[in-house]
Amino acid sequence: MAVAASLVGVLALTACSSGGDSDGDASPSGAPTSAGTGEGTGDGSGGGSSPAAGDLEGSWLATTDGKAVALVVTGDKAGLFATGGTVCSGSAGERTIKLSCTDGSKDRASGTVDSVGKGELKVTWKSDLGVETYIKAEGGKLPTGLPTAGLGS
């Protein structure tokens, strides 16, 4: 329960810093889609396949190894919070995320953005974590379909 409350608090704070409302950006269903993210394992050099830095902006949530993970991107700044007390901060660019964590963890120190769409973000971390898939949180609310069973244990 404390994990859900923490995530709601993080999302509420980030919703305040979003800089206004989105005119026509939100998907009416709120469900993540994978359409248009089939970039495969290529080098991403095709036209239009590189995500723009602005596409990363927002609050992104994942569940990895039974832990809730919130990645928040505002401009070129990034913050990450995970169950268990991991707190990281750093930068986000078009294709990379660089973080430094207060607990010394290197799991999410450097990542490559594989794809980003309206509802889904895939990052490959240069660690044993590998690929992590995030769902976008809109308007300070938890997205539907986020697995929460077993969080906080």
Could you explain the architecture of this structure?
It is a single chain. Helices cover 10% and strands 36% of the residues. With 153 residues, it is mainly beta. Strands 1-2-3-4-5-6-7-8 form an eight-stranded antiparallel β-barrel. Strand 6 (110-116) and strand 7 (120-125) form a beta hairpin.
- Give me the strand/helix succession: HEEEEEEEE
- How large is the count of helical segments? 1
Distance between the termini: 10 Å
Beta-strand level of the residues, as a percent range? 35-45%
What's the gyration radius in Å? Answer: 15 Å
Nearest-integer average pLDDT: 71
Question: From the structure provided, what is the oligomeric state, counting identical versus distinct chains?
Answer: single chain
Helix content: under 10%
Strands, total number: 8
Q: Which term fits the overall shape?
A: globular
